[in-house]
Amino acid sequence: MRRLFILLWAAAILILTCTSNLTDLIAFGEVRFEWDGHPNFSDLLFPLPLELSRGFLLQKCGHAFAFLILTFLLQTKFHSKAFILILAIAFALLTEILQLYFTRDGRMFDIGFDLIGILFASGTRSLLTVHQSRQTHL
To answer: How many domains, in total, are found in the chain?
Structure first.
């Protein structure tokens, strides 16, 4: 059952990542894919915009939240912290590269926002583990 939740959440991230127009998906529930067989990989290196709009910041919070949940789900299935981190970061990298193929804006800085969610989930688990360990030794 845990594996199913992980796969469903990963599929949701992929759909959100690869749909041509995120605004149409949110506003109208329209999922549409457009393929670009020759993406420009240098787009990955574009910097953060100078002006950070509310919509932009909400979207980046969505990145962190999506990978926070993914990491929590991975923690229910796997016990190796290193494996979970590698898997979550690799999936974040994959989503950014896939966006280029699906006419979206894949950016390396988005992996940083994904990493915030990944590290927050990892830190939370570590704190809970330490707290539980102290409780059992009292």
So the answer is: 1
